[in-house]
TrEMBL record:
Database matches in Pfam families: Acetyltransf_1
Keyword annotations: Acyltransferase, Transferase
N-acetyltransferase domain segment(s): 7-159
Name this polypeptide is given: GNAT family N-acetyltransferase
The keyword Ribosomal protein is assigned to this record: no
Listed InterPro entries: Acyl_CoA_acyltransferase (IPR016181), Bact_Acetyltransf (IPR050832), GNAT_dom (IPR000182)
Sequence intervals crossing the membrane: none
Oxidoreductase keyword on record: no
């Protein structure tokens, strides 16, 4: 069972998973993702970063950060950019990425975000399939990789949940309430 925990992006498990993700990018693209990231962008209420645990082992991660246009004409007020989605190779095919993505969408909507946006790549067919099957549609290029021929850009409207919120919460270094089978 996957347990999602809200953590700081500089939490040791998040750092390790992000290093694995960067290695994946080196293999697939010949270099790392060089998108500028400020760790505070993932702090509530303008962002969130989660790590997924199975039997106490960190197996995947992802986050969102508020992007309100201004700096980029293709981004709109109320956008939440999904970043650093990753599930370790030994844990793929079990629905963990879908569960992480759903939690990011849910928490972004609960924070008042109106649309989820993301950039993926032509050498990540499994990621693209996940996003498309989750309701994401192509949008105009934005951000750091707007001119990259290997980049694909997607967006999805978010609907705020009604009723009491459940899911990952931040309480010190690591906390959680969401589990997925």
């Amino acid at each position: 069972m996957l347990q999602l925990c809200a953590v700081s992006i500089d939490n040791a498990d998040a750092v390790r998973l992000n290093a694995e993700l960067q290695q994946e990018y080196r293999i697939r693209y010949g270099g790392e993702d060089t998108t500028p990231i400020d760790p505070t962008q993932f702090d509530a209420p303008y962002g969130l970063f989660v790590v997924g645990y199975v039997d106490g082992a960190a197996v995947g991660c992802g986050g969102w950060r508020a992007r309100d246009g201004g700096e980029d004409p293709e981004l709109w007020p109320g956008d939440a950019e999904i970043k650093r989605m990753y599930v370790g190779a030994a844990h793929r095919g079990r629905g963990y990425a879908r569960a992480i993505l759903a939690e990011l969408e849910r928490t972004a909507a609960a924070s008042g975000r109106l649309r989820a946006v993301l950039e993926s790549g032509t050498h990540q067919p499994e990621s693209v399939a996940l996003y498309r099957s989750s309701g994401y549609e192509p949008i105009p290029a934005f951000g750091h990789y707007r001119d990259s021929p290997n980049s694909l850009f997607f967006g999805k409207p978010l609907i705020a949940a009604t009723g009491p919120a459940t899911g990952a919460t931040r309480n010190g270094g690591r906390s959680s309430t969401t589990t997925h089978r």
